Amino acid sequence: MPYARTFDGPAAAADLTALFGHQLSLCRVAGGESVVCVTDTAWNPAYGAACLAAAMALGAEAGLVTLSASRPPPARLLAAAFAGADLIVYATHHTLHYRPEMRAALDRGARALCVMQPVHVLERLKGDPEVRRRARAGAALLDAAREIRIASDAGTDLVMDKTGRRGLAAYGYADVPGHLDFWGGGMAQAAQLEGTTRGRLVLDVGDAVFHLGRMVESPVAITFADGRITAIEGGLDAKLIRLHLEEAGDPNAFLAGHMAFGVDHRAKWLAPIVDTPDAGGGGADSEGFAGNVQVEIGSNDDVLFGGRNRTTVHLGVCCLATSLWLDGRPVVEAGRLTAPGLG
Predict the structure, then answer these.
(1) 1 pLDDT higher than 60
(2) What pLDDT, on a 0 to 100 scale, did the predictor assign at position 128?
(3) What is the CATH architecture of 10-116?
């Protein structure tokens, strides 16, 4: 049974407007700016309404765009909606961070915020300057590094190269020109160079495959060679991961996408299964949980990562008790953030 509130109607905007106001304030919405709120016909209508009300309360010129949930967003419509926006806030299942229209908006200095978590997660993981500080410190470490090594007592020993790929900070709000973020995000991340990931990733009992909404029940060993998965061994969890990748019907689904480590002290590891497990919820907690190490399998060609792997799969696995080194220097040790600036 649920243990917290569930918001599923437009009247909930009355309670959410102040929450959106907090987040938009951190996004530095100012009087006279243009804010475009984007939603779709299947999304909780309270999100768009609360965003619109909060933006106007901050003195912005604001509008609401509602997309069809069943059809791809028209390119001309998106381009027109984004053309004059200072801030784009999108609460929709459409992955607008893969769209060229979003890339064009960011390139001219617009800011963008994706809002895709359940309300109870948005409340608990609302913008926090301390998370921003840690994420930016972690991103700076990643940005300067070339080689990433991930290892654990469970058997993980994975190496990847990220030379030339940016270190990215996700901290939940878009406060500088050209920055796109995800409300609830709390991590440092980067795309590895395609073809460089090699070794074994071992998911231990209690690790998370958050896209499938599962905690791992028995160890799973995933072997990579030249950036591609060559074997997935284990019990039920291994079978589910393999089936999910195979269902895409695309060999790119088996490629390594990106990596990350969490920096949010407020994230709850068990949130996806305990704290109102709404459909689609929990990803922010799994990814942002402080000291966890994530390896994403599949796409890395969105407007942030700048990778070349295009596929419909974006499968995230997040590991506890795991260590991460950048160019041989420890950053995460057995699930604890130990590099300077991350504490």
Answers:
(1) no
(2) 98
(3) 3-Layer(aba) Sandwich (3.40)
